[in-house]
# Entry
Amino acid sequence: QVQLVESGGGLVQPGGSLRLSCAASGSIFSINAMGWYRQAPGKQRELVADITRGGGTNYADSVKGRFTISRDNAKNTVYLQMNSLKPEDTAVYYCNADIFNLFGKRDYWGQGTQVTVSS
# Structure
C-alpha cells in the first residue's frame, strides 16, 4: 500500500518559521499533484497549497507571500516552508497526494501534523 508520513510541525512564536515535509512510500508508479491542507478546531479542512508534478503551484489567498510549496520527485516528497507565521495559521496540517499505483489512481492522506503559533 501507500504511506504518507509528515514531519516538521510544532510550536512557534508569531512571526516565526517552520518547514513541513511529507514523504510518500510504498506501491507507487507515479505521483501527480501533491498538496497541503489544514484543519483548525471547529473549521472545515481547507487547501493551503498544492503543486503539480511539473512544479506548477497554487496557494490559498491567506498564505500567499508567506508560504512556499516545493517537491522532490526523486524522493516522492513535498515540502511546505512557512514564514511569518500567524496565530490563525494554527491547525493540523495534512499532506495529500494523487498517486497512481497497481490499484489504480486515487488520493492518499497523511496522518496530520500539529502546527501551533502562539506566544
